[in-house]
């Protein structure tokens, strides 16, 4: 079979096709379809080990807070689920954790306890990443008793004065002796009594007696 030979178009034919628009369409049809160049994804950032997240329900301790008995702590060890637990500080000030067993927690700040746990776990886990959170502060309490509307125990999770505690307790009863309120405080094993005259403070007098309460203080309203 003889191959057919394509002859070039005459000038008159080309002009005629240009006028009708067919030549342009044919030229486009002969061009190969162009596909868009693939967009390369940017290189992924190198993964870094995040700090372990404290379990939900954690609270923000007040300034100067140290762990005490009955506090509920959250110990999180990154990538070590079996070592991450919520624990209650026992009356003896200790907590019990996997692998390292008993650890003294009372009297330490959360950061100090974290360092102690890292040291203990380092014997079993390579470079442990530990976080200690506080879920409940039960060791910081003040007490009010006597002729107030709601005597009892109140958490001391932030600064609180005698007047503020009386307000939280619903105020003084009608027959309370508001001039002879006493704050019982123990310092270094020694108990002492501090006087509080509600009437003076209410009138703006002798305001220095409206002291900031400390954990363990007991306010007595006669």
User: Number of helical runs?
Assistant: 5
Indicate the mean pLDDT.
83
Tell me, what's the shape? elongated
- Gyration radius, in Å: 39 Å
CATH class category name of the domain at 141-221: Alpha Beta
CATH T-level fold name of the domain at 141-221: Outer membrane lipoprotein wza fold like
CATH superfamily of the domain at 141-221: Outer membrane lipoprotein wza domain like
Strand order of the largest sheet: 7-6-10-8-9
Helix content: 10-25%
Main beta sheet strand tally, sense and closure: 5 strands, mixed
Structural summary, described in words:
By secondary structure, the protein is of the alpha+beta class. Among the domains are: 72-136, wza like fold; 141-221, Outer membrane lipoprotein wza fold like, CATH 3.10.560.10. Helix content is 19%, strand content 24%. The strands form three sheets. A five-stranded mixed beta sheet has the order 7-6-10-8-9, with helices on one face.
Chain-wise SSE layout:
Blueprint (H helix, E strand, L loop, with lengths): L10 H10 L1 H9 L41 E6 L7 E4 L5 E4 L3 E4 L5 H12 L8 E7 L4 E6 L5 E4 L6 H7 L12 E7 L2 E7 L1 H5 L15 E4 L1
Parallel strand pairs: 6-10
Antiparallel strand pairs: 1-2, 1-5, 3-4, 6-7, 8-9, 8-10
Search tags:
single chain; 222 residues; alpha+beta; wza like fold; Outer membrane lipoprotein wza fold like; five-stranded mixed sheet; three-stranded antiparallel sheet
In short:
With 222 residues, the protein is α+β, with helices and mostly antiparallel strands. Among the domains are: 72-136, wza like fold (2-Layer Sandwich); 141-221, Roll (Outer membrane lipoprotein wza fold like). Helices cover 19% and strands 24% of the residues.
């Amino acid at each position: 079979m003889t191959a057919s030979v394509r002859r070039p178009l005459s000038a008159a034919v080309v002009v005629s096709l240009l006028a009708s628009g067919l030549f342009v369409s044919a030229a486009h049809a002969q061009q190969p379809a162009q596909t868009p160049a693939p967009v390369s994804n940017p290189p992924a950032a190198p993964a870094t080990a995040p700090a372990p997240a404290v379990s939900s329900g954690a609270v923000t301790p007040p300034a100067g807070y140290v762990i005490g008995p009955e506090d509920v702590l959250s110990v999180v060890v990154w990538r070590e689920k079996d070592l991450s637990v919520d624990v209650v500080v026992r009356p003896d000030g200790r907590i019990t954790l996997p692998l390292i067993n008993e650890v003294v927690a009372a009297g330490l700040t959360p950061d100090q306890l974290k360092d102690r746990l890292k040291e203990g776990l380092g014997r079993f886990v390579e470079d442990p990443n530990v976080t200690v959170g506080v879920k409940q502060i039960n060791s910081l309490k003040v007490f009010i008793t006597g002729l107030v509307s709601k005597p009892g125990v109140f958490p001391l999770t932030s600064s609180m004065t005698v007047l503020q505690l009386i307000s939280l307790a619903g105020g003084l009863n009608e027959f309370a002796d508001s001039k002879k309120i006493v704050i019982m405080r123990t310092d270094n094993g020694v108990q002492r009594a501090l006087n509080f005259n509600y009437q003076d403070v209410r009138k703006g007098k002798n305001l220095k007696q409206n002291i900031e309460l400390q954990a363990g203080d007991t306010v007595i309203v006669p």
